[in-house]
Amino acid sequence: MQTLLILGASGDLTGRLLLPGLARLIRLGRADGLHLVGAGSDDWTDEQWRERLDGAFAPALAKADDAGRAALQQVRDDSSYHLLDVTRDGLAELVRTLKGPVAIYFALPPAVSQMACSALGPGSLPRSTRLVMEKPFGTDQASAHSLNDKLSKLVPEQNIHRVDHFLGKATVFNILGLRFANRILEPVWNNLHIEKVEVIFDEDLALENRARYYDGAGALRDMIQSHLLHVMALLALNAPSTLHERDLRDHIGSVLRASTVNLDDPTSSRRARYTAGTIGDRGIPDYVAEPGVDASKGTETLTEITVSINNQRWSGVPFVLRSGKALGAKRKEAVITFRPVSHLPVGFTGQDAPTRLRIGFGPDTLQLELDVNGPGDIFSLDRATLSANLNETDLLPYGEVLDGVLAGDPTLSVRGDTAEDCWRIVEPVLKAWSEDLVPLEEYQAGSVGPDAWPSSHGRA
Ligand code: NDP
């Protein structure tokens, strides 16, 4: 028996992502014996909370077999709700009344999570308690350090899950399996053979009424600091000897410790904001005309940074990380571009394009783009693409997150020192932007992004 206590039970994250993710886990029999407790500042009865569960569990229930239905019903009927201001004393008292090891999910505004941690004194929680912290983890390196300091006085590092839902297991293990379980890639996975690595996360969604959060964050903090740097680390790390938590997270940490953005290069960071346009049949207003946006903040909705990994394997290879909103098409992939061959036999005609490997994230795909002798002129080069669709997990990303939390396995959560390092990498960029050393460009909603950015034309 163990308990999952969700703080912020009436919030958006809980309703839209956590509870549906949890429902899938329960349906698949991976949360047996779970006691679910909601808490928050809304004065709800247990029954009102269970009605919320009914809504969130419905899609999983519709697909469940008899065992899955019974498990979902059991968790629902056994669940309770507590009215609680988490910034005051009651949290530790509540935890002490709950059964089994307790995982506390802080689905709260970041400032409230910090206050809740401050309100919990050392020794106030059983050491076996797991704490699940949402992004953003701090607002800069110093605040992330101070939050780590507070958390380390409450429970051991092993019991702290800093969520990066982007690291759903399937995606992560696609990269690791591809790289380390195949003989052909590792020998060429270095700066002798690879020219450039891009990690792209373009969304066709615009602000979607999330100005309260997004306008204070922007694309760099929202996606690159918290997610894409980790994907980069998985693409770049040396082979760990095991996939256990310590080995894997040591290797991720080692890549990020070696990473910097070279601000002497004026193109090492770019930022832009969308203007009015259309995406499909949707009319998108100017970003600054969206309700709740403060134009004077100069929030970027698209960014691209070039990271250098300063070690022997990667010196000289740009890692371009790009993410943005309101683009004409979704594009979620890592693109590894190989260097040209050292000598192409004289006599070939046609296009000599670089070998490229594309790893797609959702849908999970692999594409290897090669030059071959195609039909027609036997000396003419043609492009061929080897494609594979990878099996996708039945769990939603938050199902994966909760799976790790309930199993007490922090392998796919962000370790404290690494969370600080991610801020160290982006902080100089944020500082340069705040000093207006990098122009805030514009792109039309529904376009590919600013025309002058090479990454806007990456799918050529
Ligand atoms: P919301 O504002 O929607 O929800 C926050 C919840 O916390 C509300 O239920 C609120 O209750 C409750 N709350 C606020 N203050 C207190 C308090 N003192 N004591 C008890 N409960 C309190 O935020 P989100 O759900 O959107 O976000 C939660 C966290 O998840 C944030 O850290 C966010 O960055 C992160 N996140 C969110 C994502 C999303 O898509 N929503 C995606 C990824 C991360 P009330 O409404 O009554 O004030």
Short summary:
With 460 residues, the protein is α/β, with parallel strands linked by helices. The chain contains 11 helices and 19 strands. A hairpin with a 2-residue loop joins strand 10 (277-279) and strand 11.
Give a written overview of the molecule.
- The structure is a single chain.
- This protein is an alpha/beta fold.
- It has 2 domains: 161 residues, NAD(P)-binding Rossmann-like Domain (Rossmann fold, 3-Layer(aba) Sandwich); 267 residues, 2-Layer Sandwich (Dihydrodipicolinate Reductase, domain 2).
- The chain contains 11 helices and 19 strands.
- Helix 9 packs parallel to helix 11.
- It is globular, with a radius of gyration of 24 Å.
- It starts with a strand and ends in a 16-residue tail after the last strand.
- 42% of the residues are buried.
- The structure holds NADPH dihydro-nicotinamide-adenine-dinucleotide phosphate (NDP).
- InterPro entries: G6P_DH, G6P_DH_C, G6P_DH_NAD-bd, NAD(P)-bd_dom_sf.
- Pathway: Carbohydrate degradation; pentose phosphate pathway; D-ribulose 5-phosphate from D-glucose 6-phosphate (oxidative stage): step 1/3.
- One of its GO terms (biological process) is glucose metabolic process.
- Its EC number is 1.1.1.49.
Descriptors for this entry?
single chain; 460 residues; alpha/beta; Rossmann fold; Dihydrodipicolinate Reductase, domain 2; 2 domains; 6-stranded parallel β-sheet; 19 strands; binds NADPH dihydro-nicotinamide-adenine-dinucleotide phosphate; G6P_DH_C; NAD(P)-bd_dom_sf; glucose metabolism; glucose-6-phosphate dehydrogenase activity
